[in-house]
Amino acid sequence: MRYTRLVIATGVGVLLLTGCAEGAGVNDSAGGGGPVVQDVVTEADIVLPVSAYLFTREQQALVDTASSTLAADCMKRFGFDWPVKKTEPLKVVSRRYSVVGEKVAAEYGYHMIPTAGYDEHAEGAVPSQAKFPPEAYMIYGGKGGDGAAGRSYQGKDVPEGGCLGEAARKLGLDKVQDPRKGKTGLLSIDFSSFGKALATPEFKKAQDEWVACMNKSGYQHTGFMQPAEKYASQGNSASPEEKVVAKADVKCKQETKLATVLLRLETKIQSDYIEQNAAGFAEIKKDRSAVIKSANEALAN
Q: What's the CA gap between 230 and 295, in Å, rounded?
């Protein structure tokens, strides 16, 4: 159950916004003013300030497991021996700036890297061998149009949102996932900072240099996301042609420092925003800490 992951699409790239444990480096070779950031050489170098206010991959796995445990306990009240899914941390490669690493370009081109267990993180995922009557799924996930509110099963009231909804409330996830509660709306900066960065003269200059570099390699593109938009949906894996283009793309990104410029710009935008909304972000961090505590307690019982 991915209650708190925000997912954004940047062109065709998808980023799961869980926080990262790695910090930004201290080498700003992108030129211009603004915060000091690490040169972007691989996808792992793309770490933004807002990640400090999101669950790490390990924390998200802990929360998912605790939610599954609490939901299974709830299901027992209705007579169902629902399986508990122990979630492992997802290893997701950022495609926020399309492909940026030589190794990824050479092996996967613009295609997403297969992630073991990704489908198993889907909300309400149940092992395929488990078989339950339709009513059980309604009780578990609150499906049925009204979130199961006011429904009952064998004389017992079904929680609002089903057993998943009950688990979320026990963990405090209802607050950290619902923009109407707490300060989670502030996290929209992770969407908007990208668009704001693209509108700056600094980025436009870097992209013009990238376009010129790609032209020299024989590729006609007017925007750095265009190659990904062309190839990512072609087949299930990267073709030899796609890999060649991706490697040229990465070479030009490194020569023009396009990804590093983007990271520096987004870092400045997000840092300023977080500073201007310090109290709200402190509340977000507090709420997430409370969820982690509740998750540990749920798994300890």
A: 42
Residue 225: strand, helix, or coil:
coil
Q: List all residues 6 or more positions away from 129 whose beta carbon is below 8 Å from its beta carbon.
A: none
List all residues 6 or more positions away from 22 whose beta carbon is below 8 Å from its beta carbon: 44, 47
List the one residue out of 57, 73, 48 whose CA is nearest residue 4.
57
Per residue in 157-194, pLDDT tens? Answer: 999 999 999 999 999 998 887 777 778 899 999 999 99
Report the 10 Å Cβ neighbour count for 9: 10
Note whether 2 and 64 are within 8 A (CB): yes
Enumerate the H helices of the chain as residue ranges.
Answer: 57-76, 102-108, 134-141, 162-171, 173-177, 189-198, 201-216, 226-231, 240-256, 258-276, 278-300
**Six-digit token string for 26:** 């201290």
Q: Are 164 and 142 in contact (CB under 8 A)?
A: yes
Q: Give CA–CA dist 100/45, Å, rounded.
A: 10
pLDDT per residue as tens digits for the range 2-43: 433 333 333 333 333 444 433 443 344 444 455 678 899 999
